[in-house]
Amino acid sequence: MSEQTNLGGNFTLPNTSITLKRIGYGAMQLAGPGVSGPPRDVDAAVAVLREAMALGINHIDTSDFYGPHITNQIIQQALHPYPENLGIVTKVGARRPEDGSWVPAMSQQDLTEAIHDNLRNLGLDAIDVVNLRLMDDSHGSSEGSLAEPLTTLVELKKQGLIRHLGLSNVTPKQLAQAQTITEIVCVQNQYNVAHREDDAFIDDLAQQGIAYVPFFPLGGFTPLQSSALESAAKSLNATPMQVALAWLLQRSPNILLIPGTSSVEHLRENIKAASLQLPQQTVADLNAIAARP
Ligand SMILES: NC(=O)c1ccc[n+]([C@@H]2O[C@H](COP(=O)([O-])OP(=O)(O)OC[C@H]3O[C@@H](n4cnc5c(N)ncnc54)[C@H](OP(=O)(O)O)[C@@H]3O)[C@@H](O)[C@H]2O)c1
Questions:
Q1: Is residue 240 part of a domain?
Q2: Is 39 in the pocket of ligand 1 (CB under 6 A)?
């Protein structure tokens, strides 16, 4: 099977008709520097999205606070009317003031406006999946109730504007609280071969059939660098980034990848992780990265 049709296999979000290829695409890199403003080359951004579709990707992760608004507008420009099987997942819970910072925006009004902004800028009547992104700690989760903002999103779901709900930057306790309010189909937290605080959480989500979608799968703003990744890549005739993605695919069947890139070449490189089998010894060597003090 080619990488295009395989893309790491499929995962169906629980109790939904949404089946996603395990290698998707994260759209955050399509905005300008600092995830603010337009990209230097809008045509290049459009080309990346169209190539993702051509390669068989059917999962795009985005947010209206990328740009803000601009990334979603580029997605609409590149892909609307959307392919039937495309799952678009967005996130709400923050806003971007003029200075480009990220501030929590969790009130009923903030969240309602955010959903309408996403719908308008993506050109949709309803969004497949919306993640409530908690903002207490910028890239790590911290405890605190999510009942109020989640209840707002449940209301918007009842109105037909959202099909399914997920969570981002959350703890297992917060997931449990959320599940007393509504069904959660996916969790999006920071995780990669060097950053493994969520190991036990991932296993628990796998048991429940819930997707785990790591953000910063390649290290995000600080790309992964490790001699173990480099030597594994050398021995497998692959690149370190492909090895990092293949490690995630092998880590657990509920992990869905959304590597971000602004480059068609990197996109093509990343999807080849689907056909990379890591031998047991390589996995053990890579597991040692996070174990190091
Ligand atoms: N829920 C959240 O709070 C949250 C937070 C952050 C991100 N996200 C989502 O997660 C997605 C992934 O995260 P991310 O984009 O921040 O980080 P990432 O996927 O870990 O890494 C992206 C970086 O890696 C580079 N890259 C990608 N492929 C490469 C390759 N084959 N070789 C070398 N460099 C490569 C990209 O640069 P190039 O553009 O040059 O390829 C970019 O600088 C985002 O796009 C976004 O949708 C969610």
A1: no
A2: no
Note whether residue 151 is domain-resident: yes
Cβ–ligand 1 contact at 241 (below 6 Å):
yes
Q: Is the peptide bond before 172 cis (omega within 30 degrees of 0)?
A: no
User: Which of 154-158, 218-222, 269-273, 289-293 has the weakest average pLDDT?
Assistant: 289-293
Structural domain count of the chain = 1
Strands (E), 160-246: 162-168, 184-188, 211-212
- Using a 10 angstrom Cβ sphere, with 0-12 exposed, 13-18 middle and 19 or more buried, the burial of residue 48 is buried
Which residues on adjacent β-strands are paired with residue 162?
127
**3-class DSSP assignment, residue 233:** helix
Across the chain, what does the average pLDDT equal?
Answer: 96
Q: Are strands 162-168 and 87-92 parallel, antiparallel or unpaired?
A: unpaired
* Residue-level pLDDT at 142: 81
CB within 8 Å of 260: residues ≥ 6 apart: 25, 26, 27, 28, 29, 218, 220
What integer is the mean pLDDT of 62-87? 98
28 lies in which domain range? 13-223+252-262
Nearest alpha carbon to residue 178 among 213, 160, 209, 153: 153
Is 40 inside a domain boundary?
A: yes
Catalytic residues: 66
Write the pLDDT tens digit of every residue in 104-157: 999 999 999 999 999 999 999 999 999 999 987 667 778 889 999 999 999 999
Ligand 1 contact via 253 beta carbon (within 6 Å) = no
**CATH number for 109:** 3.20.20.100
Whole-structure pTM over 0.85, yes or no?
yes
Task: Look at residue 17 and tell me if it is in a domain.
Answer: yes
Q: Of the candidates 150, 211, 203, which has an alpha carbon nearest to the alpha carbon of residue 179? A: 150
Residue 94, strand partner residues: 104
